[in-house]
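Shipment paperwork, digital attachment
Item: protein structure file
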Amino acid sequence: MRFEGRIYRPPSEARSVLIQLTVGCSHNRCTFCAMYRDKSYRVRPLDDVFEDVDMAAVAVPNARRIFVCDGDALSAGVEAFAALCRHVGSRFPKLERISSYVNARDILKLSEDELRTLRALKFSLGYLGLESGGAHVLRSVHKGATPDNMVEMADKARRADIALSVIVLLGAGGRALSEDHMRGTIEVVNRMQPKFLSFLTAMIVPTTPLMTHMQEGQFEPLTDRAILQEARDMLGGLELTDTLFRMNHVSNLIALDGRLPGDKAILLSRLDSLIPRANEMISCVCTGAEGLML
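Attachment content:
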């Protein structure tokens, strides 16, 4: 397989075959994100992508999962994405799942029939960077979507039987918008009822607008204790019926996981025991080398 630039994938796709359909991110304006700032967005020629699939099929013929890169592969268009899914399906006889990062815009512009077509081709999981359910926070990080957009796209994906793995960024609102972040995220995630939910920490990375905002005094990051308290408050407000929850990314201060609602009390108890012992220091600001590890 051939890749352009650094390639990112969710931790749960560690054993998946990675195929790069797009280079970079078509949005690429989120203030906290440094993942694709060294790339110029474009859609790769399908012939090149199909060649990569063919090489992967020779190298890993029994692969069951395919993850399509880069930041928002559906931005290539439904025809290109569907063509890739068909080619993947023809080359991997044991294929169970195709997945990719998704955003609200790309899902909302597709018809329900188009989404069902992709689902029939085994595209069954999208990783959504919700980041926050707070309207002010989403505007401040230039996410390009509103809370209602996020809920609407989740409903649309659910009707097509496409599961979502939703990512929330602890500390994304800083001190000033922490309340908006917490309350809005609880409301939106409860409305979305995702199959998977992950809490990550918003790391302040060099070369990002968020680092500049912090240096200019426009953004005040949370302390370690405040980040854990935010996690506790969000988790405490969630009313989910069947969601696998993880807080075990390298950015997190502690590792937690469980299934909600059954494990909620245990998770809250662990956070309650840790918060009083947490440092009143800020550890979410990264050097260049640390940022490359995220």
